[in-house]
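ok so for the tutorial part 2 we go from a plain amino acid sequence to predicted structure tokens. step 1 is just haveing the sequence, like this:
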Amino acid sequence: MLLLLGWTVSAADRAVTGPVVTWMIENDVAFLTDTDNPHALGGLIGGLFFAGYMLTQFPGGYLGDRYGHRTLIVVSLLWAGIATLLTGFIGGLVAFIVIRVVTGLGEGAYYSNDRTLITETTPERDRSLGMGVVITGLAFGITIATVFTPHLIGIGRLVMPDIEAWRMAFWILGAATVAVGLLLAHRFREHLSLAKLGGASLRLAGYSAVSLALIMGVYLLGDKAGLSGLWIALLEVALAVGLVMYALSRKGEELKPVLRNRDLFLIYLANIAILWNLWFFSFWSVSIVAGAANSSFMSAALTAGFNAGAGILGFPAGGWLSDYGVRRGWGRKEMMLTFTGVQAVLTVCFAWYLSAAEKPSLLVMGLLLFTASLFFNALQPIGHALTADIAQPELRGSAFGMQNLIGEMGAVLSPAISGVLRDRTGGWTAAVWLDAGIVVAGFCVLACVRGQRGPSGTGSPGISVKV
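step 2 — the prediction. this is what the tokens look like for a chain of 467 residues:
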């Protein structure tokens, strides 16, 4: 339950950027409205956050395998909370981007260590359920950021000028993250030491300093050269690919089971589509609904909350079904593929409805978002358990880190490319169709993973492992 709380606050910290950016555009906050393409710029800000989040996925898991996964979880939460608090104090576009990237760099160490800790401490028969229950915090956090950002900004209006009220959302959520980080530190105190916390923090800070310099260097050089947000986002992804190649060249033998396992690598690639879809809707859903139905910011936030809220049911249900199915002799891959297929069909239906309806209904959009998101969230703990089944136990942190490093390429590109499409077409329909196509592509990649019903030779049920 404490790990669930960790997911809740960290997800709220990252998801709040989208609604705040939408509010900034609508309320003429200077550094976003002084541009001809505010949605493209807002999407690029989201993409740069995920560039930071992406680049510490693998180092975070690697350090967790060495300093302890509980250590990295505490470091990640305290880092993210302090950076989110600082976001509310800064001004200017570049400073806003820098602090959001720093926040992402800290949060990037949470996922791989959380997934590994659950794998180590949960009975194998309930592994996927444990992952599904804990990651329900992601749905809670995104729902809080989507639905309650207007209220948090409203609190800000009580104590500061209206144009500055957005800062309150970061202050409240940042304080909550620090509190949860301290709570987890107390719970894990028997496994922590100042030496481990200090060593892990310094090593993560070293990785982060290099990553921050690279991310901001790409952004500033691209901006000076007049490149669009789309090209800058693509260069950030190229940066991630370079990091993977660097890791392979430096630690090729040690990480061979993580990087050169065919099935693991296909799961990494399929995760690009998962993260694209997750952060396309999490970042832009309020704007999509508001633009399609011509509704108020509050009504759009409540409707978009159906997309995030579906995870509260989908994550634990998917985890339970995964473990139940394995006990019945079903393969995790087949279950994940089925749920991905259903999600793909429903996403296509949502795109078609936006294209065909003269004035889309908030009710219909809410139902479609909820249903598609239900299957989408259910498939994720199945995929996490599948990765845990395949990866070698001593390298699970590195495997989860590599999975999210590659998958987060979708999160980097999704807000930026979607924002560009919105500015160029005047609506969100093209971006939603693109999302549907990427979900279908993820289904095709996942279908190539080799799996079989029944126990495997390694003792992990429901998957055959071939390197």
